[in-house]
Design a protein that fits this description.
The complex is a heterodimer of chains A (227) and B (610).
Chain A lengths: L4 H9 L2 H45 L7 H10 L20 E2 L6 E11 L1 H4 L13 E11 L4 E2 L2 E2 L31 H4 L7 E10 L12 E7 L1
Parallel strand pairs in A: 1-3
Antiparallel strand pairs in A: 2-3, 2-6, 4-5, 6-7
Chain B lengths: L8 H46 L7 H19 L7 E5 L5 E6 L2 E13 L10 E13 L1 E8 L2 H5 L3 H12 L8 E7 L3 E8 L2 H5 L1 E3 L2 E3 L14 H15 L5 E8 L5 E5 L1 E2 L4 E2 L40 E3 L10 E3 L2 E3 L5 E6 L9 E5 L23 E3 L5 E3 L24 E2 L7 E2 L19 E2 L18 E2 L16 H23 L1 E2 L8 E2 L2 E7 L11 H8 L24 E2 L6 E5 L5 H15 L2
Parallel strand pairs in B: 5-6, 5-10, 10-27, 27-29
Antiparallel strand pairs in B: 1-3, 2-3, 3-4, 6-7, 8-9, 11-17, 12-13, 14-16, 15-16, 17-18, 18-21, 19-20, 22-24, 23-28, 25-26
The chains are: A alpha+beta (227), B alpha+beta (610).
Amino acid sequence: MKRTISMRRRKGQRGNEIIEFGLMAVFLIPLLLWMFINGLNLVRMIQCTEICRDIGNQYIHGLDFSTHAAQTLASNLAGGYGLTVSGFSGDSSGNEQSNASNTGNGLVILSEVMYAGTNACAALPSGTSCTNNGKYVFIQRLVFGNGSLQFNGTTVSSALGSPTATMSDSGNVQNYLTDVHAVSSTAGSLITLSDSQVAYVAETYFTNPSLDFSAYPAGGIYSRVFF
Amino acid sequence: MRNHKEKGITLVIGTVSMLMIVPMMGMAIDVGFLYAVKSKMQAAVDGAALAAARSLNDGSTASAQQSAAQTQGVTWFYANFPSNYLGVSSVNMTTSSVTYSTASNIQTIAISASANVDALFMRWLGFSTTTVAASGTASRRDLVVMMVLDRSFSIDIEGECATMRAAAKAFTGQFAEGRDYIGMVSFSDDVWMEQAPTQSFQSSLGYSNANGSGTGLIDNIQCQGNTNTAQAISMAYNQLWRTNLPLAMNVLFIETDGFPNTLTMNFWDSTNVVSGLSNSSTCTDLNNKTKSAGGFGSTTAIVNGANVVQWTPKVPIGATSYLSSSLTYTTGGTVYTPQGIVGVIGTSDPADGSDVFIYMQDPYNGSMMPAPSCNTTSCFESTWAVAGTSGAKQAYGCGFAMSSAGPSLGSSMASETNYSTTAPTDFNWWPATDVYGNYLNPSSAKCTGGTGSGTCAYMPVINYTDGIHVSASPGSAPSNCPSGGPTNSYCNFHNAAENAADNAAYNARAGVAFPSPNTSATLQATIYVVGLGYGTAGAPAPDPILLQRIANDPNGDQINSTPLYAACSTESTCVTYSAQPQGEFIYSSNSTAWGTAFLQIASQILRLSK
């Protein structure tokens, strides 16, 4: 068989493209990977912000998130982000203050906080000491999703703190003017309220997929909106 | 074909193409960041707009309220959008970014914000920053709120009348003076239209809030007497109707600590030309004849002319009324309930220890408390009612005849004398409705579209033998009365009073057309209720299921850590109506929590007015 010139030349050039592609790949593959992770995280960041905003918007307009129906609505709203609420048990009226014994990748914390000043304390009967005068207090706290969620090995929690005062199954804090366990020690550093003014706060946590990237909040995406 | 000179061409092409690929990837990253900032900013603006709209109630003048809204809009925005978020710079959100407009009882807040986002990659191509902007709006409806405050004796027994007054003033302090409308009806046996809805409510009713406090009609409330809930609801609803603001949020806010146990009734049935008086009654008509002597046989024997005579007490409603013409009587430019044999009948409560009827009283001045100043044209005073030594105007010699010595009050109902009787012997029947058309024993046709096991009539009531009226002395007990419990007549009346209150609320939520020129809109009141408890054994307590029904609240107890009542759907006597506005009932189980319950209702109303 007669060998052609091109066949002869290829023998000497065999593997050149691989080598050249390899050299290019040194730059391209990390770039593409970085691009992929960034793009993914950016999309998640945007969507998690919007999920938080939408849940908070429904919260301030009166949707009762202590019910399974409302929590399921939030779960559907966060479709694909792993907000699981199937562990809902509820009391006889169908309310549950904390439905956080779920697996999944999401956690939602809703709070109603108030600055308890002199005017707020005036709501107490005469002679009753207003223990929480001058403090930010929780009026309502609702939690649903995965309460064991961790970012970088640390279990997530509300930036406002967690009230340990007695709460109803609808999340309403009892005796928030007189029970020291209703106080939020950090709310004042996040927003300034006047006497008796109320703020509604939606917080969401969603873990990142296994691909992580250090340019973003490690471990997941946290969003918070004050209404 | 590739020659020797083409060696490394892939690398060259690849490198050259990187000049295109890298900027494109950079642009993708930069645009992604822009969208992330935009998303965060939009959420921040939305939150700020809603908070600003809510702040429109802060301040006593329109300009002060707008200023508060602007300030709060800025505060909320920066709480939601940290200044260093993803390296943005030149964040622009000031009070001038919060604009305000108003139209037809709706205030709209518009907020805009912008920020410069530094480019990570595109700066190499000369695009160092990009401006991202977001805007949002939120509206707040004006409010028309009628407070319906129970000032019955039980509140005074527990020494908490002052607590109730303080809570009511904290409630008015939450709303916008000069913008919202708030009025007040107070009730015990009698119902006083204390204040029609006014934008100057803080100066007329009194208030307390962060800006200070003021005194007003709320401070004058004294607690004495029974619980005439049905009339209070109807009179308050009439004020919403007369205010005639269809685009505003129309609210009835009811506070009560006990059972409805009193009714304002007309014992003259003009349709069937028959009175409810019994043959044993000593009451006489205008011809000085008793029922057994042939009296009370015609309207002219009761009503003499257009205005007030002995048996023509009327309850004033105002210049106009939502009630149908069959339920009203107009003279001298004032609308009244129809003339007839009108009086107030009340009973004790189960917790009082004795099941008695209280003597028939004046609908305006019967609760042994000094009524607000009135005259016979602006507010009714029946001529049959005479002031006794206590000052109360009650029936002496007729309508449960009592001694002319007048009643003697005691620390409990059982210890009082000349005040009550165990049997309503002067009457054969109670009318089918109270003077406002609220049914004492409504048939299912009177309430439609209900969800739940309950029926239109909340409590079982036995009708009179004519099938039209309600029996004053039934031969058997209504089915819910316990064996060996209250007398048949007492229990039947008590059930009827609860039904009338429930039906009054149903009618207010069902709505009627607003008066001209807004007749195309319907006023469906949203009803909020605070039930006051005392947290002590033996103290009065409201009926939670009744108050759930009145508020049209399907939820169980959302406030107390140990729920005091269940969801409406699980209660055999509860019913809610999906076509009517859903309100909220709060059972405040002890007086320490009353004030916060009032504030919670105010907060909920403001929350939903957006």
